[in-house]
Amino acid sequence: MQTSQHVLFERSEMKDRHLVRKRIREHIADKAKLPILIFPEGTCVNNTSVMMFKKGSFEVGGIIHPVAIKYDPRFGDAFWNSTKYSAMTYTFNVMTSWAIVCNVWYLPPMVKEEDEDAVHFANRVKAVIAAQGGMSVLPWDGGLKRKKVKESFKEEQQKKYCQIV
């Protein structure tokens, strides 16, 4: 990765975030460079939904070329449920599957609107991708797969539920 134009960073390090944002802006400004491929979810899910996008990808400006990707599990399932299968079992299942079929849709380019912040722009792009792939939109990120749910998030959901009841 270091021989190509990858932009590597440590998400938990605040200094890295600012440096990455600067490097991406410089990359976008240089028309001689190839576009950057970003996976704003930060993790894969089970092919049924699109999780919250990290806003950093949408703060730097430039044109976003959304791509919707959805695996067809009829011949082999590319999704790795790490709570159910070990890495070795998953690798074996993928390598011995008949085929891994993937539908890819290249969607029209999108640009951040003047009155739109990065979060709303990310949500708009996410909604377009989810609609194309026939997937649902989730308001949380992939961190819930590996971390405990924050108490504040639980309380917020409980308050919403109480208002409904």
UniProtKB/TrEMBL annotation:
Membrane topology: Multi-pass membrane protein
Alphabetic keyword roster: Acyltransferase, Endoplasmic reticulum, Lipid biosynthesis, Lipid metabolism, Membrane, Phospholipid biosynthesis, Phospholipid metabolism, Transferase, Transmembrane, Transmembrane helix
GO molecular function, one term: glycerol-3-phosphate O-acyltransferase activity
A GO cellular component entry from the record: endoplasmic reticulum membrane
Highest rank taxon of the organism: Eukaryota
Domain Phospholipid/glycerol acyltransferase: from-to ranges: 1-70
Pathway: Glycerolipid metabolism; triacylglycerol biosynthesis; Lipid metabolism; Phospholipid metabolism; CDP-diacylglycerol biosynthesis; CDP-diacylglycerol from sn-glycerol 3-phosphate: step 1/3
Name of protein: GPAT3 acyltransferase
